[in-house]
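Example record

Each entry pairs one chain with its bound ligand, adenosine-5'-triphosphate.
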Amino acid sequence: MKYSSCFSKTSKTPPTDADSANAKFLIQAGFVDQTMAGVYTWLPFGLAVLRKVEQIVREEMNALGALEIFMPSLHPKEFWEATNRWDNVDILFKIKSQTEKDYALGASHEEVVTPLAKKFLESYKDLPFATYQINTKFRDELRAKSGVLRGREFRMKDMYSFHTTQEDLTAFYQKTLHAYVRAYNRCGLNVKVVEASGGIFTKNPSHEFQALTDAGEDTILACDKCEFGQNSEVATLKEGDACPTCGGVLSIVKGIEVGNIFDLGTKYSDAFDLNFTDENGDRKRVLMGCYGIGTSRLVGSIVEASHDDRGMIWPKSIAPFQVHFITLNSKDDAVRENIMGTADDLVRELESNGIEVLWDDRADVSPGAKFADADLIGIPLRILISEKSLKEDSVEWKERTGTESRLVKLTDLVEEAMQFVKE
Ligand code: ATP
Ligand code: MG
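Structure tokens for the complex follow.
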């Protein structure tokens, strides 16, 4: 993509009211735009990142055998009354139609998926199964804050699983827990797995997935070696203790909740009378689990965990582009034509080899401003073509995480870039 063709430009100055690194950089770099508090437009670069994150999450859910669906955001009041949540969930957005009918805006989807399952589920032969969606959620948060970390409208992957026995539910829950860790790691984020209600063997266990950064709202006790974590409010352990899993040292740190999984037991199948017929012909309650990842919060958490004072530093797997290509202008027509012609060929060749390129082709912008934009946008590899580099039949290669640049021969660029992307 040519930068000159993209309407969503970077800004020279960060937003004055940004309360966090992700708000500051995502807005300044033109990845998102704030419509109002807690509500954002995802602009082309931001959407590219969000889509990659959601694709990684999708692949991990598909690998569990879950099938993707897409549920509505407009919910009938009756479903939320059936679970006693119409009056008891303070963050539920409620709207009235012109015919005085009440609706809820989807804050979560147990109220839709449980009646849905009931339409298809008859006997034990139909179980187990899991289904998920990646959708927009609406929550009337008292205080929307920290950029995309706490929105009133945000993206979530939510999966729901249905089982005949506790053993089967527990096994699937454990498999999902590992799939979650894999999904975060593939997005370049390390997480701690925090037992939110006393562990897997208690009634209705749940686990939170916490990304460790100072921007986090939660305080947790985390191991310095493995993924073990414990919510500091209910912790039976204390700072300095040995990790019960690996013997590492526990310390108190700040975390952002990027996911949460729940063993729901029969909470929702009780509410909707969701049963199955077992091998003996007896009717029994279905057991359920639910599993959420805040995908837009995940993007913000990655910015919190991976930036410097100049801008964002995207992991390769989710960067909006892999290569940030810069051409420097020249007053000399022949030189300019050579620069732009060479760039055009190289960009085309990179793209035909599956590498996504942002080409800063602007003629009226200084080298310094182009470099500052490249650092702000945070694409892993910066390639520069200038009169100087062309004298050496080369481009200048600089990685976002490195401090030095080096020359790479024009004839070697595509191969080296392909190698870099793969690493
Ligand atoms: P929190 O404690 O942060 O309010 P929650 O526990 O209410 O979140 P869940 O119902 O567990 O949230 O939702 C699953 C996931 O959705 C969370 O782990 C989080 O990643 C994400 N999420 C929840 N609320 C928001 C929000 N307001 N903005 C962005 N993401 C959110
Ligand atoms: Mg939660």
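The first strand starts at residue 32 and ends at 36.
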